[in-house]
Write a sequence for this structure.
């Protein structure tokens, strides 16, 4: 059993996940999903570890699978994961001004996923299946309907106050 050394990854958690699904190639996606859920992203060390623990896999194969599927993030996600829907209904009803308001409030640059303090990550997603509530923003699975720039700024202000 591997103990933690210089790495911040708790490999015992990964062992538990591999054991719970079974150390088989065919379970790789499920294992990666659970690892991502646990760490909020797929750390490089975790992918290497999984690649050495399952017969028939290599770290390179695991990395290849992880980069192929859009559901996997190789970058740390923030404590607050913000998703702005930019599907057609949300776009038409003003998702872009809402997105820009969030970027401005968080001081997040184009192409940047997570704020420097690790508190927020921001991404656009396609239709969330709640078009009647457009434009929709989701923060850690909570759905915020009919968002406006002002409303989203208030929500972020509230989070900042709670985190202060
Ligand atoms: S387009 Fe945004 S929920 Fe459908």
């Amino acid at each position: 059993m591997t103990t933690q050394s210089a790495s911040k990854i708790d490999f015992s958690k990964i062992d538990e996940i591999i054991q719970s699904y079974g150390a088989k190639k065919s379970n790789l996606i499920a294992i990666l999903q659970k690892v991502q859920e646990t760490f909020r992203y797929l750390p490089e060390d975790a992918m290497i570890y999984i690649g050495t623990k399952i017969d028939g896999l290599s770290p390179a194969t695991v990395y290849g699978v992880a980069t192929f599927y859009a559901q996997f993030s190789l970058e740390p996600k923030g404590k607050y994961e913000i998703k702005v829907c930019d599907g057609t209904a949300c776009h038409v009803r003003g998702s872009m001004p809402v997105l820009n308001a969030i970027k401005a409030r968080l001081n997040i640059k184009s192409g940047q996923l997570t704020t420097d303090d690790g508190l927020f990550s921001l991404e656009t997603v396609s239709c969330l299946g709640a078009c009647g509530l457009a434009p929709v923003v989701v923060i850690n699975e909570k759905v915020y309907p009919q968002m406006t720039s002002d409303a989203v700024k208030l929500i972020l202000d509230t989070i900042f106050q709670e985190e202060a």
In short: Residues 80-163 form a domain with the Glutaredoxin fold (CATH 3.40.30.10).
